[in-house]
# Entry
Amino acid sequence: MSIKSIFAIPIAKRIRKRIYKWADQPEKTQEKVFKKLISQAQHTIFGNDHNFTSIQSYHDFKREVPVRDYEALKPYIEKILKGEPDVLWKGKPLYFAKTSGTTSGAKYIPITKASMPYHIKAARNALLMYIAETNNADFVDGKMIFLQGSPVIDEKNGIKTGRLSGIVAHYVPKYLQKNRMPSWETNCIDDWETKVDAIVEETVKENMTLISGIPSWVQMYFEKLKATTGKTIHEIFPNFNLFVYGGVNYEPYRNVFEKLIGKKVDSIELFPASEGFFAFQDKQDEKGMLLLLNNGIFYEFIKADEFFEENPTRISIADVELGVNYALIISTNAGLWAYNIGDTVEFTSLKPHRVIVTGRIKHFISAFGEHVIAKEVEYALKEAVARTGITVNEFTVAPQTNPENGLPYHEWLIEFENKPKKMNDFAAKIDTLMQAQNSYYYDLIAGKILRPLVITEVAKGGFQQYMKSVGKLGGQNKIPRLSNDRKIADKLSLS
# Structure
């Protein structure tokens, strides 16, 4: 054990104590964040447009500031892009995090001098919380890899612009620089397949102890390592003991990862986004991630099943309940105000406040009024493969509203590592689990409006080929678990 790892443990325990101090006072913590945000943005263009000087309470805020998505915020973003200062936040942003939009083309999410440190601190604290709980800091002595987008930064009217993961790469602390992989040159490779090949070549003989990234792309890295060496990841990296991930639920990937790795390893789930770093897993044996109430973000929540109503009820952290699916609304020190990030969450604990990500407010299936969400399909698949030899690489679900024969149905497009011997029995097991979770779906099946789900097998590598075909292979991109149309399903059906 090195001096660095020895000192990490007492530092981690001090940080944990500070974190739980504000977590134990959720309403007070959020009130403090709220007042600071309003005060510092009073004299911005947005603040003037929305009477920030008159806002004294959350009630006032709801009256003056409607919930917005990116399209509604875009006129303010365009002012910043033209060079205007003091639009959404004081001065100009340090960066624009460029993300792929579906209806608006590229999105430019501001990152400010005030907000940038919170992205870095949250990632650091996630690791420190793990060290504090387990007293395991051995991973800091080995090599760490963060599978991420290119750190190459462009400029748009004087503001640096890039992918969030690439921007964050410029802020890796000095004490981690010697341990960090891949090399800067490899990280700058734009083509994902070429980049992964280069990462394999650089890392295969290194002492890798921590690996981080979106599960689907880490899986690609692991598979290339195995193909290159003929060994499991544990045999290649015997000291690899911590997997850090975010972006999608790990459970659908767990079986295939354990087979690729050759043993179980600890994991830490993160909930980062261009708009802010919202939560991280604070305990290995607790379900959910600690919501970061002291991270420059004021949170609001709208029940997902009320979200598309004309005047849905907006609530603060004071009024959330367990087991309710909420759309997550944020106001931040990057200048996002009552902003709908598109994710839905559910609280698993209120002391402290922990959440799981249940899906996307626009990623659901309700072609027949069934209101199926990502959490339900992921749970059903996880339970169906439990205690079997079946391994799933990737999947997505879409409605088939106009089948050639019979009733409409939900089509599950699944890429198997090794498939079930009786596909119909496997499909029936998933369907039973779906009906048990979702009463709307049950009623539609029982009423013979829908037939039970149908599985379509996707060829090996089919999902990667699809992502490559739409220019979204690698980085922060991921396949939606659910679609309310067949844009993805029809292309995958042909693969």
The chain has two domains: 1-362, 374-493. The mean pLDDT is 90.
